[in-house]
């Protein structure tokens, strides 16, 4: 019997395999992944794992026995090509796996720094377990690190490096940290928080080159002509979705593998999920591509449900979290860059939320150390939220009363 082949054994690929079995699928399930070892979680790589508080066993999604018990075959190999006409996926080395259905869960890869000196030793990225191990080793000796990019990964890494006692400089081209993801108010809070941790945060600073000696990086040059000394450099300037396999097979690609509301590609025998996918969402205009555990997991569950006879359009509420030092940022919904921001609570208390509204309608909630606001947001945004900006701003107003 030809079964289901899943390409990419990360968060989404693993979840698809597990959910297929949970839903009673009895045919063969094969999980093809190019990384060695068992599927693991990436979030701890820039948090507990980087700090040294977790080992590989703690971040693996399941122990080896789970895959044996559930008859999920893991193939550690890179998928090189899809032969859609023959419904086969060709692996490195030439072996071809037939499929009745294929799920693409190829994720994303780091965007390389596009400046001279990028090939120097001592320049690190953080996506994989292997990347994290290399960085962790480097953290044991070196003192001065320059982080390029004040996105989630750059700031999470910066927080860990400060905790471990390193001198940390973060260089960001935009005028504020986390600019693509959160409100200006939340960016300002995180800028202050990192500065008070002792990190030097340079905003509006473009990197024009890496300086080196004897093949090793020694500094980062910015557009203002300054050179920031570095024993090593960590680059976190975003990712590129892994769409090549799909594109070469003739599937539609537009900043992600394009899927419909059921997460099916234009080939009904191929679905796609996770970081690699651009999908239609009621929380956005046009197609969105999200990079989060929630997105990969819920999309995997939706495809597994469809393949086992319970189809439904994918409609999950997007949510995300980031841990930086003792600050837990949680976000739910999707805000546009110009959405209004309404503060609930006092940022100085390090426990507050920013409610985002567009034309008076709630679009997202960003919370710091206020999990109850976040959880409420998940429930509100699953339906049609009725909360007003005035209610959001008024801490004496019981948010729970909105749930009826
Ligand atoms: P991935 O988990 O990246 O898995 C894709 C896999 O496919 C990879 O192993 C890749 O090597 C493999 N692959 C690609 N092409 C092929 C091929 N041709 N053949 C075989 N294998 C292939 N999200 C949150 O929600 N909260 C967080 O706090 C958070 N922190 C993060 C911290 C870090 C350091 C990183 C890197 C990510 C973090 N994320 C976080 C994002 C989250 O991990 C991703 O959104 C999630 O892993 C996406 O799942 P995925 O299955 O789409 O891709």
Care to describe what's here?
With 404 residues, the protein is α/β, with parallel strands linked by helices. It folds into three domains: 4-109 and 240-307, FAD/NAD(P)-binding domain, CATH 3.50.50; 112-237, FAD/NAD(P)-binding domain; 326-403, Enolase-like, domain 1. 25% of the residues lie in helices and 29% in strands. It has eleven helices and 26 strands. It has helices at residues 11-22, 48-51, 56-59, 64-69, 129-139, 152-163, 184-196, 244-248, 293-307, 371-382, 389-393; strands at residues 4-7, 29-33, 72-76, 79-83, 88-91, 96-98, 101-104, 108-110, 123-125, 144-148, 167-171, 200-202, 207-213, 216-222, 227-229, 232-235, 239-241, 257-258, 270-272, 277-280, 287-288, 319-324, 327-333, 340-344, 352-358, 361-368. The strands form seven sheets. Strands 3-2-1-7-19 form a five-stranded parallel sheet. Strands 9-16-10-11-12 form a five-stranded parallel sheet. Strand 14 (216-222) and strand 15 (227-229) form a beta hairpin. Helix 1 (11-22) packs parallel to helix 9 (293-307). The longest helix is centred in the last third of the chain and has 15 residues, at 293-307. The radius of gyration is 22 Å and the shape is globular. The protein starts with a strand and ends in an 11-residue tail after the last helix. The model has no long low-confidence stretch (mean pLDDT 97). The site of flavin-adenine dinucleotide has 36 residues, from helix 1, strand 2, helix 9 and strand 22.
């Amino acid at each position: 019997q030809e079964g289901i082949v899943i390409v990419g054994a990360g968060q989404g690929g693993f979840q698809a395999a597990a959910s297929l079995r949970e839903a009673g699928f009895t045919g063969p399930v094969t999980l093809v992944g190019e990384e060695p070892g068992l599927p693991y979680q990436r979030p701890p790589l820039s948090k507990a794992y980087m700090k040294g508080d977790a080992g590989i066993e703690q971040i693996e999604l399941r122990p080896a026995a789970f895959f044996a018990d559930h008859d999920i075959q893991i193939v550690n190999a890179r998928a090189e090509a899809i032969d859609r006409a023959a419904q086969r996926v060709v692996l490195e080395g030439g072996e071809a796996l037939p499929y009745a259905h294929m799920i693409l869960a190829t994720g994303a890869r780091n965007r390389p720094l596009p400046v001279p000196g990028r090939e120097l030793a001592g320049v690190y990225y953080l996506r994989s377990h292997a990347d994290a191990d290399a960085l962790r080793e480097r953290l044991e000796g070196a003192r001065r690190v320059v982080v390029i990019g004040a996105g989630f990964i750059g700031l999470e890494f910066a927080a860990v490096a400060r905790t471990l006692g390193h001198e940390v400089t973060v260089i960001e081209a935009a005028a504020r940290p986390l600019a693509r993801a959160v409100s200006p108010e939340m960016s300002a809070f995180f800028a202050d928080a990192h500065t008070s941790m002792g990190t030097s945060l340079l905003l509006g600073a473009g990197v024009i080159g890496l300086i080196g000696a004897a093949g090793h990086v020694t500094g980062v040059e910015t557009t203002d002509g300054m050179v920031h000394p570095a024993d090593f450099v960590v680059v976190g300037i975003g990712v590129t979705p892994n769409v090549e396999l799909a594109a070469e097979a003739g599937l539609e690609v537009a900043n992600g593998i394009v899927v419909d509301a059921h997460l099916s590609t234009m080939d009904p025998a191929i679905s796609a999920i996770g970081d690699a996918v651009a999908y239609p969402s009621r929380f956005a205009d046009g197609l969105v591509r999200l990079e989060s555990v929630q997105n990969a997991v819920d999309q995997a569950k939706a495809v597994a449900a469809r393949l086992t006879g319970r189809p439904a359009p994918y409609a999950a509420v997007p949510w995300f979290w980031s841990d930086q030092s003792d600050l837990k940022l949680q976000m739910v919904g999707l805000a546009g860059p110009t959405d209004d921001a309404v503060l609930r609570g006092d940022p100085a208390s390090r426990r507050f939320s920013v409610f985002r509204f567009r034309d008076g309608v709630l679009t997202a909630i960003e919370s710091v150390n206020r999990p109850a606001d976040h959880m409420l947001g998940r429930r509100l945004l699953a339906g049609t939220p009725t909360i007003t900006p005035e209610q959001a701003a008024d801490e004496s107003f019981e948010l729970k009363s909105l749930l009826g």
